[in-house]
Amino acid sequence: MAEAVSRSRDPGASAPHRDYSMFDAELTGAVMNLSLLRRLMRWMRPYRVTLAVSALLVIIASTLQILLPVVISLVGIDYIIGGRTDGGTPDMGMVDLTVAISEGFGLPPLLAACCLYVALQLAWAVTVHAHRMTLITSVIKGLRDLRLDLFRHLETRPSSFYDRVAVGRVMTRVTNDIEALYELLRGLGTLIGEFAPFLVALVIMFSVNVELTCILLLALPVIAVVTFYFRRATRLLFRMVRLSVSALNQNLQENLAGLQVVQLSRRENYNYARYTDINQRNLAAETKSMRLETAYGAFTDSMASIAIGAVLWFGGGDVVQEEMTLGGMVLFTQFIAMLFHPIVVLGEQLNVLFRAMASGERIFQALDWDEKIHEPASPVTLPARLRGEVRFRYLDFGYEPDVPVLKDVSLTIAAGEKLAIVGPTGSGKSTLVKLLGRFYDFDDGRIFLDDIDLNRIHSRDLRRRIGVVLQDFHIFSGTIHDNILTRGASPSSDPAIDRERVVAAARTVNAHDFIAALPKGYDTRLSERGQNLSQGQRQLLAFARVLAADPEILILDEATASIDTETELLIQDALRKLTARRTSIIIAHRLQTIQEADRVLVLDGGQVAEVGTHEELLAARGLYFTLHELQFQETDAAS
Amino acid sequence: MIGSLLRLRVFVARYRGRLTGGIAAFALARVFEALVPIMLMIGIDRLTEGNPDILWPVLGIVAVVCARFVTVSFARMAVRRAGLLVAFDLRQRLYAHLQLMGPKFFGRYTIGDMMTRAVADIGLIQRLISHGTILSVVLIFASVVGFAFMLSLSWQLTLLIFPPLPFVFLYAWKASRRMGLASRAVQERLSQLGGRVQENLSGIRTIQAMAQEDNEIARFAGVNQAYADAFRRQARINSVMSAVLPTLAAVCSITILGYGGHLVLTGQLTVGEFTAFFLYVNMVVQPFRVAGFIVSLFQRAAVASDRLFEVFDRAAEIEDTAPGERRRRIRGDLSIRHLDFTYEGASAPALADVCLDIRRGESITVMGRVGAGKTTLLKQLVRILDTPSGTVFIDGRDVRGYSLAQLRAQVAMVPQDPFLFGEPVRDNLTYDNPSRTLDLVWQAADAADFRDTVEEMPEGMDTVVGERGVTLSGGQKQRATLARGLIRHAPVLILDDCFSSVDTETEEHILSELRRLRRGQTTILVSHRVSTARHSDRIVILEDGTIGEIGSHAELLAAGGFYAELERIQREGADPADYAAAAGSAG
Questions:
Q1: Residues of A with Cβ-Cβ distance to B406 under 8 angstroms
Q2: Which residue of chain B is at minimal alpha-carbon distance from A514?
Q3: Dist. CA A330–CA A313, nearest whole Å
Q4: Least C-beta-crowded within 10 Å: which of A394, A546, B442, B469?
């Protein structure tokens, strides 16, 4: 039996030092990381054919885009108006094509050129649309897959993971960070769309006039340097703006959430002054960043116009000396936008790219997070119904290697028994029941469920047999009905039967009356945090949910907060019905619950201190007696 | 729509000069921009005539570009700054206004809703001023100036270019409206997706405990797919729009090429003018791409404006009936006379004909079922609810006769929900008066049994608590808020169910501290526990908004009513089955 349960432990899993802080770090921006892109491409692989088509289409579309000004300048101005046939400038066959159309259909050359222009324009529209759609569709699909994989991965991380990380931070992985990858891939797509025409235009310009092209290219470093410094400056400013905006929102949010306290403490004016201060800081940061952006925008616009002057100045001489045609020069003025725009776009996209790199890195870190519960290689098939006997044997456990939480716990809970666990804070009460649900791996000692070693049962099979009621009832978005009959609690195909089950469960645990009193009864939608229910009502709902699932074993962490006496009585009664003929383990805080248990287990410092009935333990005058005195003296003194 | 936007004029009026200056500068900038093609045209025409003297046209371009740079920068900065300033003012106004709101307001609007108005709606109005103004001004001036220059070159060609433009505008408008709808769908799906993740992660323990992972993953896959679909739809609309718009605009280019080319061939147009036409068409058509965007900016800002004024239009919930009244010491005699109170929209009154006298120095515990009116009653004493006049008196004077500052400074209330600000512990405890000495703070912490908790924190009293700091348990939060109430040594102290998450032993200690500290001062508690109530001078039992029983612990026990029953249940535990059966048959 011993070897049957010895789990194969991969060496990495036992490494105790995991850096959970990565889930808390602020996004700062990382360097270009090619291995990251390569890894990202793995999710794009299923769509590689579409992506290849898209790449082909962008080349065609760029060429068509380039040909449009060629028709106007080289065909229109040079061939038709200027009457030049030799050209000498590479027109990519546009002149010949115009001649062919003109002769084939008997049209005047000007009309033929117009027809050509229309055809090119339409072809461009179709290819560019096809290019964008193929690209974006594969990106959307690839990231959809990545997001689902990430979600699946996070959904199956063990409790030890969620003990250590803040949910909000993990959540940003699935939402914001994936969004940033969209931006990244879309940004790359945009850059391709910008640079493809840039390169095609460059080839034509060089073949038209090398000297003039070189002169225009001189502007690129200027724009690049200005763009670089501008982006660097704005990165800092944007950060300041972001910080001040989030400070603004935080302040307002908190002021509203605590408004009653604010008013009761007469802090209105003081808080208003503080808010004004933040608001002013925000205004200053926004103004600065706005000024910079405006200046930069006007600068890039101006560069394009200046370039027109440059073409005229430097190209003019060539035209007069007949080294370049007039159409060639006009063509240059029309290519200017294509030449400068990519740099501006690159500048715009760079910040996005860097941010996305950081996001990607963190997504993959999360995906690489291999912390998990070790499942048995060949899990046992559980019988249709367990009897529910639980045996703990020499159980030792600690979350950290050197800090034991449970020490040598041995205990047998008979089938159908109701056991209350009590003990001071930190005595290991909740750890013990968590191990029973296999929320943590344990190696020292065993737990048997109806004589089956717990480590040989797949955690998912196990958890279908164990019902857990935590202190706080978690509400799933949906109606009360949905919350009682959780998905997968083998709902039948007939909604009427489902509803009967739900009502029956709610009735048994005394939840029916308050539910029926709600305007929409069982179809009432619960708000996310359940503010429309009182704490006692939430407890009753949790009971109904677990009763509907009908598990063989019940684990309950009793709520500590005091609830009004009447609801308290309803809860006690429901608890009695819930635990009837069901092995129940209750971390108890209420005297009534303890008194009604078959036995009481007293834990102290991770060890079993005492076990017995309430009366036996009181009589023994041990730890239980002391705890009882401390906690319940008031009510006892009165009796 | 116009009406909603016009209401904003009070906020915009202060920056009228800035805005008109900016708009005028934009008009000037368009003229400079339009001069570039003219210079180019002169240059080209000289070249076609074989005249190599193009120095002046080139210098002209440089000069015009510089002038344009200056005017455009000035114009944009002026207008955008106006937008920022208006947003600043709106935020200030909203913040100040929200501070005057109370339970009535927040019963109707959620905090999330107010945050949306503060962030998104003000943002929309700012964008309308900063971008909407600029874009519409550019659109108008570009058209006017562009057409004026074109007309001066060739009226025949200009007239031919004009007809397609309305169609371009119409298409742009319609397409970007579709685009707006699609973007909203994407946003909605995204927030659904976020909600799904949030819900899953916060309930991960329950989900795993109930082995619901596969179902949840399947559900998520559905939401994920829906988001991808919406995203793709939006991308398609965008892609079609950016393919169709230039194609429609190309009609103009073809007209110039065909008819303009004909004019050149027949000598009615020069090559330079021909080239300039292409540039002008571009200048006129470009702004059209955003026509729909501009319209939607106006529409959305109008809605945003309505939503903001909806808040601004609400009067302060609790009117400060005696502001600036001179300072006087409250002694602590309370008197409630025939107090009725009904919440807005409620059918039954929350309090009905409540009469109660509380002498200075007395300690009172208010008990009763959930919804019996306990909190409602206590809130009248500090006017968190709008107390009717002539019903609640402090030291014989109507509470409405005190200024709110006076009243709330001397009647301290610790609300039921233990709210802490994301600030250091010390700032939380001295929230009403940050100038208190550390000594006083520790004394209050001692009295509330909060010292140990603070000492265990990494930075003691300077530890930041809340979401961005150390998370406290419910009991710890309650003790912190208790300390915040105790530190004030107010003549009247009201504790609204402040021990519910504190264990009985700790509560006992705090209660004895309370008795010591509050000697001779009025203290009112709300509790469910008989163990809390028994030490009070008198116990008030509220039943459906009226006083059911009143008296000392012994008196009420002897009376054998609700309180006596409560005491019996809490002492020996009733048989819950009997109770549930009784409640069931009653319900």
A1: none
A2: B587
A3: 12
A4: A394
Nearest to A308 among B36, B72, B253 (CB): B36
Say if strands A418-422 and A599-604 run parallel, antiparallel, or are unpaired.
Answer: parallel
Report how far apart the first and last C-alpha atoms of chain A are (Å, whole number).
53
Residues from chain B that touch A459, judged by Cβ atoms under 8 A, are 211
Least confident span in A81-90, A296-305, A399-408: A81-90
Is residue A15 predicted with pLDDT exceeding 50? no
Q: Smallest CA–CA separation between A245 and chain B, in Å?
A: 9
> B120 and chain A: CB distance < 8 Å anywhere?
no
The answer for residues whose C-beta is within 8 angstroms of residue A224's C-beta and 6 or more apart is A343
Residues of A in contact with B247 (CB under 8 A): 121-122, 124-125
Which of A432, A348, A439, A361 minimizes the C-alpha distance to A607?
Answer: A432
Token pair in block for residue B148 = 């004026």
Instruction: Write the pLDDT tens digit of every residue in A512-531.
Output: 988 888 888 899 888 655 55
- For residues A131 and A65, give the distance between their C-alpha atoms in angstroms, rounded to a whole number: 13
Interface test with B, best of A485, A565, A576, A629 (most B CBs within 10 A): A565
Q: What residues pair up with B366 in beta bridges, in sequence order? A: B526, B540
Question: Which member of B211, B404, B569 has the closest CB to residue A565?
Answer: B569
Tell which residue, B258, B249, B259, has the closest CA to residue B280.
Answer: B249
CB-CB contact of A213 with A254 (8 Å) = no
Over residues A20-36, mean pLDDT: 63
Highest mean pLDDT among A259-268, A322-331, B358-367: B358-367
Q: Are the beta carbons of B211 and A155 separated by less than 8 Å?
A: no
Helix (H) or strand (E) holding A130: helix A109-155
Mean pLDDT across the stretch A402-429?
89
Does B371 contact A at CB distance below 8 Å? no
CA nearest to B494, candidates B323, B321, B332:
B332
User: What is the phi/psi pair of residue B162, to 5°?
Assistant: -65, -45
**Which candidate from B51, B84, B475 shows the least CB-CB separation from A287?**
B84
Query: Considering only CB atoms, which chain A residues are within 8 Å of B421?
Result: 254, 258, 261
DSSP B325: P
CB contact under 8 A, B201 and A159: no
In B138-289 the beta strands, taken as DSSP E runs, fall at: none
A-B contacts (CB, under 8 Å): 390
Report which residue type is found at B415.
P
B464 vs A: CB within 8 A:
no
Q: By the CB < 8 Å criterion, does B542 face chain A?
A: no
H-only helix segments in B99-132: 103-108, 111-116, 122-127
Strand partners for B351: B341
Pair of tokens at residue A352: 């996005």
3-state secondary structure of B531: helix
Q: What is the pLDDT of residues B105-147, one digit of tens each?
A: 887 888 888 888 898 899 999 999 998 988 898 888 988 999 9
- B187 vs A: CB within 8 A: no
Contact between residue B129 and residue B82 where contact means Cβ atoms under 8 Å apart = yes
Whether B82 and chain A come into contact, CB under 8 Å, resolves to no
Q: Which value, in Å, is the radius of gyration of the alpha carbons in chain B? A: 36
Cβ pair A152, B217 in contact under 8 A: yes
The answer to whether the Cβ–Cβ distance between B570 and A635 falls below 8 Å is: yes
| Cβ-proximal residues to B79 (8 Å cutoff; 6+ apart), any chain | B18, B19, B22, B23, B26, B129, B130, B133, B134
> Looking at the predicted complex, does its ipTM rise above 0.90?
no
- Nearest residue to A419 via CA among A534, A264, A610, A586: A586
Residue B250 and residue B105 in contact, taking contact as beta carbons nearer than 8 Å: no
- Reported pTM: 0.78
CA–CA separation, A473 and B153 (whole Å): 77
Q: Is A460 in contact with B65 (Cβ distance < 8 A)?
A: no
